[in-house]
Structures are given as C-alpha cells and as structure tokens.
Write a structure and sequence with these properties.
166 residues, seven-stranded mixed sheet, 2 helices, 34% strand
Length: 166
C-alpha cells in the first residue's frame, strides 16, 4: 500500500485573502518540488492532495507522450523562427528527453468556475523552457487530459473552462 501524498509547508499565500493557500510537494513528471496553489473556497486540502497524488503524479503514458509531442512542436517552431543560442542537444532532442530542457516551479489547481459540482479539477503547470526563456511556459490540463502547452499567458481557470462548460 502506498503512502498518502501530503503537501508540506501549507499556509495562507496572502494575508488579504485567507482562502488562497499554497503548499509544497513533489511533481513526479519533472522529479522536482513545486509550489501548489489553490483556493480553499473551491478545493479543500484533502481534495488537492488526492488530485496531486492520483492524477498529476500518476499521469498515463499517453498523457506524458501528448505533453512531449506538443512541447516538441512548440520547440521546433520557436527554434526555426529565430537565431538565438540554444543549449547543446536541444535541437536534436525528441520524446521524453525534452523534459530535461523544461522546469516547473508552480502548479495552480482550479475547479470549474461555472459549475462547483464538477468534480474534475484543472491544473496549470507553470515554469520555463530553454527555447523560450522570455515568456515562460504553461501546461494546461483538465483532469489528466492535456488541453494546451504554450508560452505563459496567465488566463488561470479561463484557460481550462469556457462559459459553455457549465
């Protein structure tokens, strides 16, 4: 039997908004500790920990492959459109090897803002890439499904759900 996942150093993110909390824990895909953020008005701590343990940290191979394929397309397009100096090996890397040229530092967790009964959580994994150091990166997910991999735009839950997702 596996141990339950627990966030460490959980606390209020901003004194002005006591419902906005964050905690730290492992993100398996990138093998690093990240800051997880969520609002307790929408998601309780136990639900956040369950989602991290059972969804984000147990992504199916198809999901990881989808992330890597989307990242590869973005990287290839970006590298072909400019003449910046890139790290050795970046141009040739394919498959899961591309994850070594990315870093994630924070994960925002969301519930559907139009339907609080929707039990499928969304997440935005935010960080950086070696091919687009200026803009940052976000991986937008609904449950374990990849919706988008792109430069950071900062739309929050509105990158996951639209008004028609009620």
């Amino acid at each position: 039997m596996t141990d339950s996942f627990h966030l460490e150093r959980v606390g209020v993110e901003e004194p002005a908004d006591e419902n906005r909390v964050s905690g730290y824990g492992l993100l398996e895909l990138f093998q690093c500790e990240v800051e997880y953020r969520f609002t307790t008005e929408d998601i309780c701590l136990e639900e956040a920990e369950w989602y991290i343990q059972n969804v984000l940290n147990r992504l199916p191979d198809d999901t990881v492959n989808d992330i890597c394929n989307r990242v590869y397309e973005w990287k290839t397009e970006k590298m072909s459109s400019d003449t910046a100096d890139y790290p050795a090996g970046l141009a040739e890397v394919e498959g899961r090897g591309i994850l070594a040229f990315m870093a994630v530092g924070e994960v925002e967790l969301y519930r559907n803002p139009a339907n609080s009964d929707d039990q499928i959580l969304g997440a935005i994994l935010g960080g950086s890439t070696d091919w687009d150091t200026e803009n940052g990166m976000e991986i937008v997910m609904l449950g374990h499904q990849v919706l988008e991999v792109r430069e950071y735009l900062g739309y929050g839950e509105f990158a996951i759900w639209t008004e028609s997702d009620e």
